[in-house]
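2024-03-11 09:14:02 INFO receiving multi-entity request
2024-03-11 09:14:02 INFO entity count = two
2024-03-11 09:14:03 INFO echoing inputs for audit
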Amino acid sequence: MRLHQLKRLFVGTPLPTAQSRHERLSKPTALAVFASDALSSTAYATEEILLVLILAGTAALSYSLPIGVAIAALIAIVVSSYRQTILAYPQGGGAYIVSKDNLGTYPALVAGAALLIDYVLTVAVSVAAGIAAVTSAVPWLFRYRVVLCVAAVAVVAIANLRGIRESGKLFAAPTYLFVVSLFGLIAYGSVGAIFDFLGEAPYQAHPPGLEGIGLFLLLRAFASGCAALTGVEAVSDGVPAFKPPEAHNARVVLAWLGAILITLFLGITYLAYDFGIVPKEHETVVSQLARHVFGGGFLYYEIQFVTMLILLLAANTSFADFPRLAFFLARDRFIPRQFSTQGDRLVFSNGIVILGGLAVVLLLIFKGDTHALIPLYAVGVFVSFTLSQGSMVRRWMRVRGPGWWWRLALNGVGALVTGVVMVTIAVTKFSHGAWIVVLLIPTLVAIFVVVHRHYGEVSRQLSLDDYSPPPPMTNTVLVLVGDLHRGVVHALQYAQTLSPSAKALYVETDPERTRRLEERWGKWGQGLPLIVLTSPYRSLLGPLLEYIDQLQRHGDNHVVTIVLPEFIPARWWQQILHNQTALLIKGTFLFRKNVIVTDVPYHLRH
Amino acid sequence: MRLHQLKRLFVGTPLPTAQSRHERLSKPTALAVFASDALSSTAYATEEILLVLILAGTAALSYSLPIGVAIAALIAIVVSSYRQTILAYPQGGGAYIVSKDNLGTYPALVAGAALLIDYVLTVAVSVAAGIAAVTSAVPWLFRYRVVLCVAAVAVVAIANLRGIRESGKLFAAPTYLFVVSLFGLIAYGSVGAIFDFLGEAPYQAHPPGLEGIGLFLLLRAFASGCAALTGVEAVSDGVPAFKPPEAHNARVVLAWLGAILITLFLGITYLAYDFGIVPKEHETVVSQLARHVFGGGFLYYEIQFVTMLILLLAANTSFADFPRLAFFLARDRFIPRQFSTQGDRLVFSNGIVILGGLAVVLLLIFKGDTHALIPLYAVGVFVSFTLSQGSMVRRWMRVRGPGWWWRLALNGVGALVTGVVMVTIAVTKFSHGAWIVVLLIPTLVAIFVVVHRHYGEVSRQLSLDDYSPPPPMTNTVLVLVGDLHRGVVHALQYAQTLSPSAKALYVETDPERTRRLEERWGKWGQGLPLIVLTSPYRSLLGPLLEYIDQLQRHGDNHVVTIVLPEFIPARWWQQILHNQTALLIKGTFLFRKNVIVTDVPYHLRH
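2024-03-11 09:21:47 INFO inference complete, emitting structure
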């Protein structure tokens, strides 16, 4: 009862099924809803590049410029590629569905596994980076960052259990504030850089590089920066949410998203280089940049605040995506079907709870540290990019609509480039944590296959096709009696309603007690015959099993019903004061065919 | 199945009830069986006295002699007193039973609580001291002492679960070896002391005393030494185990026990003083004494080994005493009745498991350190001594057999002296740990009373006295259907055997599914009518509860049976892949009157 009330407090009252509907989004709102995930990664992508480069000393930081340009080009390619997907899948083309359509089940499962992993990582990374934005501005909160991360996940998860996921208004303000604030920062910073009135960032001593600069390190820096691309696929997943013409509007929004993303990412990367900003443990690069440009006043704090907000929105995106993908996987019977049922508030509660739980586990293991999580991140996204673009290539070759050959070329370039980047990320970050994801993806696929096989087997065994109805069933009703009291009388009466030939069964451990029972049976036995079984080893189950074996030799579709009188104390703790015989009997017969155990509870008052 | 085999491996095959019998013991065997607990305490009693005295510096150690003499006198008094109890209770006079007979329920419960606590402490202290005897001889084992303690408890507990408790032969050899070896040690040591060929023990630096010698410290030393008396009551508890004339033989054995105990205790205390032995952390006093007298050869190791053996036997004694007392308390309904049932091997398994578990917890908390446990020890024993002797005083006043007045005087002195010692122990050791026991005894008594009241209330509510049999019961059988498959067909057939008017119930969440179900119902519905309930909030339980409410307005003794089709996967882990609807429904109706939920399992093959 109290658990029920607690749930109401946090989750709200149930919503009727009829209230299920999808809000249609205008282009500006859709940009806010679908861009938060992609744009928020600019809060940490530059920093992750610098953190790798600095291993070769501060001089190596200048390599961030060419790497930034390469990543910007990659964004342009992926965006162009996904604009083709939107055309082909106006009903929404997530990597799982697109791969299933064009490449078959196994590639789809790989995409599904990769995406599930990356949704969890998106929550963990975004929340960790969001809290880092806060602790950069308020340093004394740094020691509480793990607690803050866990609290943030809890808040987002509860909000989603209440069902906020598709309200565009919620997203619009923080996303546009973030975009405007960062454009302001970049514009004012660039002017300052050009006319040189802002100077260099304060000098920071840094130990000399431990590694020489080389191709592997550069590739690793590039791989770390590829976190900037996560979330770019969101628009093409959500085409049906747009106002008509859906596909057209989605393509426009995706193009805008790409442009903003490239501008922000390159702007931050350039200014960080120009002001000579070096990554620090307790302050993010964006925070250092904003502090240098705006000097720690209101604008600085505003930027930190909206950065946190957009990162929490990014985490929130996964809380819509993960349960939706889980729904598809459960509908296709690759994961437990509990993920396909909607809760009281019309959301997929199980997916939300599992996602929140896994993200908290990750945040605890990696102590809420963005940099520790990054090596695991982006592998999954690029697996899904590659499979998604590859699927499109297959599709254009098959469908051949208007302009198919140049769309094929675009998707082909996309598939090739994202495939190469995927391998680069997996190899360069392998020993830093990517190995976990590389092992986890096939493991998840194997689990999907086992689960699928089980469901198939169950539905085959339960199927009514080619099933000849069994002969009519016969049933022997036995009341298991250990004593004579009101609860037993109740159970005897119940057994009489089930069968006129019901019998009572008593297992004798002490002949004296049998004699006393038999004496009172005439008055209270409700006319049922009493069968006494002897038990030389004081075991209740031995003689009972033997007796039932004998009964079941009779017929083919013959069932034995064991009626168990059980009294239920008024308070739960009193339960332990009574013999757990009923539990033992139920456990014993659970896996035995054609024996049905029925508890007949007799409720005590206090 | 595998758990079952594991149990057989450790515990052995079941024994038939007819094999239950009590071995009758000759006097020498009885001495061995009943003396081990009392005699084993000489392994640590002297050391505990010295450990308190040394707080006032090494010079204060000489006070061990008068304290030893006082304890020896106390032993003589208690032994004489218990010799009277044996006369009055030839059927065995444990403190619980004797107090219940003469002082009433509450004093008996206090005695029961005190004894249960002390049995646990006997196991913990004896095992800790036994392992200390081993680690004194083999010092590198010292760091593993906690593990060794736990292993020793496990071995003794498993042996008792197999049912070794009353085999006299097991006890004879170690007990007599211990007595003979220690007599040898004391005799040879005394000769050496008199003719001065053994010299002083090696000088040990010791920091000067931190406390002045005073009455409180002397009393605390005395209280610690009183651990020597634990186990003296064993003979009077076990009179029926003696060969006839039982009472006479028991009195003779008790006198012998007293004489040996006093000799060993005084001998060790005197020699430790004479050789100037100072307690050390890593070696017991008895070990130092034996090493000094025998010089570390075979005889030294033999003494350490038999000391360990007799201490394990002492622990073993509690494994017979605790379950027996628990049986009496459970029979009188003061503790859960699970303690009154014998297991497969005719032993009270629950008592043995609980005792072993509690002793392990104590050993872990106190890190297997005898000295840390001693302040908790002996309080309970002296509570039971006092109540037991007090009971005898009441009895002699009532019964007045031959020589009653001088037996009354003996028991009166016993009650008075043990009462004074009880208070002394509780006060002087209060802040060192005795407070735990002082609080625990009334807590346990309160639990006993609550449990007793509950059992009384239950049997009153279940009683058939003044019970007018209820009117004949009527029963509505409903099959809860969510789909149509072989398991559902099986359940429908089963419902038909229960009632010709059984109905099927379907809660609609999606009208399309209802339509499909209704289409197939004609062929597979077994002729049962299908009732469809709508559920606007997708809740299964809401409409179901409403429908049952309506049904139950009908009659007085009307029961609703909900038949739940459930398929059971072949492997346990597959269970989590299926909706836990059945569990939810059973949980909901568990506390609801007149609703009976019956699972009809359909077993899948693999």
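2024-03-11 09:21:48 INFO post-check: The mean pLDDT of chain B is 86.
2024-03-11 09:21:48 INFO post-check: Chain B touches chain A through 73 residues (CB under 8 Å).
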